[in-house]
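Holo prediction. Input below; ligand is NAP.
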Amino acid sequence: MTSTHHKLIILGGGPAGLTAGLYAARARMDHLLIEKGAEGGQILLTDWIDNYPGFPDGISGFDLADKMAAHAKRFEMNSMFGNVVSMDLGEPIKQLNLEDGTSLSCDSLIICTGAHPRPLGIPGEKELTGKGVSYCATCDAPFYRNQHVAVVGGGNTAIQEAAHLTKFADKVTIIHRRDELRATKILQEKAFANPKIDFIWNSNVTAIKGNDGVEQLQLMDNDGKESTLNVDGIFVLIGVLPNNEMLPLADLKADDGGFIPTDLETRTAVAGVMAAGDIRSKEVRQVINAAGEGATAVLAAENYLTNLS
Ligand code: NAP
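Structure of the complex:
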């Protein structure tokens, strides 16, 4: 078993982690960023980002991720791919255990593990995932050329990705459990003006049916009335759940949803451990917040390390 110690470990390479990596590299801190999959996190699931300052024409999620990683690497961010499965957040040394049996330790940790799409948890969903049930319009929209798809959800993700789907599908039906969208007004205006988008209000999808692929949705409205809708695919875009399976949730005093509370400086309940980005307990999950929190977390880590020595 190998063991390597760093002053700072950043766990996760989405916008929060990559910004933390940039700041740590520029501060010439002894640091390591650990990413499980591809650098970029959830923005890789986003077709187009129109509200990140500095890109007046917008930028694709993939390109923004690529630029963030390239920016951090220009300052020699130290990174590796690895899957952290558990950790021991002792004071002062924190130990991270990887799936391959190795472990790494650090004096200070920034948790940027992000979040993943929330499933509906209804019959047929698991069985038909990848066969018409999708959680990523950016990834799967081209499969639905000239077809009819449903989008579940009324938040920014659902409304933005429904618009993206209309580039391929003939018809996109948004199914929302209330009579009002949660998404920001500019996205709502675009969706209401899009002739390929229609809405089913005050309704939930209760089952997804099909043999080799999605064929029909069973719906129930808020008065209990049942109906069906024939579609070729369904995109479930109803918010996110935290990527927290490797975290000691009791030590970090996780909230009821499993997100990690911090103070304004991103400090968690454990000394020397910060949390930034979508894993933080908060209302607003935007790329710009995640990046800002990544920067704040490095400054908090620097302060902690200075007081430690
Ligand atoms: P969200 O804002 O939490 O919205 C989730 C939507 O799904 C809500 O409309 C909610 O309904 C609905 N919903 C939740 N659970 C449901 C269930 N079990 N069955 C049916 N519907 C359900 O999530 P999000 O849209 O994924 O966005 C996540 C975060 O990313 C937000 O902070 C968002 O602002 C941010 N984001 C920003 C942008 C952008 O700025 N362009 C783009 C994408 C995401 P209710 O409305 O009734 O609660």
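The mean pLDDT is 96. That is the main takeaway for now.
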